[in-house]
Amino acid sequence: MATFLLEIRTEEIPAAALPGARRQLEDLFSVQLAEAGFADLEITPLSTSRRLSVVVKNLPDRQADRSEVMTGPPSRVAVDSDGNPTPAGEGFARKVGLPFDQIGRVETEKGEYLTATVVHKGRDTSEILAEIVSTVVAALRFPKMMRWGDGTPIFVRPVHGVVALLGSEVIRCALFGVEASRSTVGHRVHSPETFELESADGYAETMIERGVVVDPAERKQRLEELAEALASEAGARVHPDPELMAEHVELVEWPGLIAGSFEERFLELPPEVVVTTLRYHQKCLILENGDNGLQDAFIGVIDRKDDPEGLIRQGNEWVIGARLADAGFFFAEDRKRTLAELVPGLDRLEFHRVLGSLADKAARVGKLAAVFANALDANVAPEQLHTAAGLAKADLLTNMVGEFPELQGIMGGHYLRLEGADDGLWTAVRDHYAPVGFEGAVPESVTGKFLGVADRLDTVAGLFAVGERPSGSKDPFGLRRAAQGAVKIVAEAGWEVDLNEMIQAAADAVADFSKDGEAAVADAVTAFVADRVRRWLTDVVKVSGDTADAVMSADWSNLPAAVARAEALERVRTSESFRILALAFKRVRNITDGQPDRGVDQELFEMAEERELFAATEEFAEHLQGLLPKRQVEEAFLAMEPIAEILERFFVEVLVMCEDERVRDNRMALLKQLGQQFMELADLSKLQVEGGEK
């Protein structure tokens, strides 16, 4: 068995592109090698900022021989009356590469046919790999691709070298005009000279000797250990930041870190300002002290083993100090005016060319937030909501947000706090952009929650109204995240509110901008938000997709109630009674769909099973009336179970579609009444159960 190595050496690859590239390399090689007949392989994708690699272990020298049974034409047309081959028989013999006297016969339902077993000799693995390499690399996709040279090559970055080895043998192939060899280079600082790899085996170890850690998992471990050590030396701890650490892993070939510091006076700025400067602008890890406060120090990533003269540290400190000094100046300048003084300027900031200014949006958001509060009988004055909506976007006109756009909303909250605004107001402004999608904490105050949901629904409804809707993977306005954020706030706040009504209110506010009409906007936004609710149930609540579908088919607009029903159904659905019930309910839905509502006439019952099902339906209805107001949802689902056997007997003994029209309609009315009771909880016909496909 041999090891195969492919290394594509390039110019600097964007960090965000590397995890996806590794997944593609593993998947594509796995598929291609399996199709070539290779099994039990160990495929390891590797990468650094300057190279994409894959190592495949346990490859044989040759592909195994493969036998194939081929069927030819019928004997009656392939052989004449004297037993000699006809042109058809001779053609089949040529096709399989055998003399005609070695061609066999096989009896089938359609008669006797010619047959032959053809042995396909296995090819050299190196020959197959040369073809697979070209196929795999051509199939790789990246967020952004580049052309270079004469414009023909297209890849994530220009390619400077290719290594393709099977054991110690060079695979004859070329990528983007670059012939494969055994030559590569080490780290640009520690080992920039070209050298030759003797074999594909031990690739990772050899590269470490040359200053390159090709395994991302090993780079991550080294970075984490080094960060902890540097933080400990500074008497601090690293603020957990998995996302930034993952980016650091992809930025370097050798995992290195440096510790630096900045003037303590900058800690007087709002902490978000310091964090934004360190993390988002310089990609530095944040250090905390024992009180969870910020330390006047940071840890930065470097692509080398050390910083012997301290120049990298000094450069980071200089840039960070300058940016924090600018932030201090902007902070002082902004505080010379109140946030309310900036509000008139929102008339000059365009939200959307059709939907108007940010002042127009603020007015809509304030009204919609008041509708929410009124629907929930919340103890929040409409005036406070209108004030919060008006102030929420005002910090877009501040110097600080102009320089640090990541701080929009947050700085408005801080400025209001320093002006002495009440907690409900300043926290509402600070938090109204949170959460982003399903990630992060929801706003702290009730006002902030109303503001956050109203702001998002107005954005979604408004942009839907003017035709700016997401399509496929494109969502330039982040409407999916906006809807997800609204769903998360409603769910975690436990609001018993009809989302359909809230969506309708948002659609009403932008109806004048829609060419398709208010109803079309409301329908489109409703379907869009409903899809986010389904994702909340499956991705966050962690129920199965068919459970979510069953619950949402009954009702999804009261989100806390839908969550409770989904969790309860997921717990009880595994019983045999529910399997029977789900199968029977599919029949109920098939029979009653499209049928008008009719009363059930007990005088028309002809069989005991009808009376039994009617009594069970009435009893279940009484259970629901007692259990649902108390939110005893699981008990309500369990109350369905006794009906399973009754309903099964009904379908065995009772002919629903009988000739007597009155009896037939009465039986359908009975089933529809039962179905309507079940639909208070879920549409069980949506459940995927054994036997349900029949």
UniProtKB/TrEMBL annotation:
Its main location: cytoplasm. It comes from the Bacteria. GO terms for cellular component: cytosol. It catalyses: tRNA(Gly) + glycine + ATP = glycyl-tRNA(Gly) + AMP + diphosphate. One of its GO terms (biological process) is arginyl-tRNA aminoacylation. Its EC number is 6.1.1.14. It is an enzyme of class 6 (ligase). Residues 585-678 form the DALR anticodon binding domain. It is found in: Cytoplasm. Keywords: Aminoacyl-tRNA synthetase, ATP-binding, Cytoplasm, Ligase, Nucleotide-binding, Protein biosynthesis. Pfam families: DALR_1, tRNA_synt_2f. One of its GO terms (molecular function) is ATP binding. Residues 63-86 are annotated as: Disordered. NCBIfam families: glyS. PANTHER family: GLYCINE--TRNA LIGASE, CHLOROPLASTIC_MITOCHONDRIAL 2, GLYCYL-TRNA SYNTHETASE. Belongs to the class-II aminoacyl-tRNA synthetase family. Tetramer of two alpha and two beta subunits. This is Glycine--tRNA ligase beta subunit. It comes from Candidatus Sulfomarinibacter kjeldsenii.
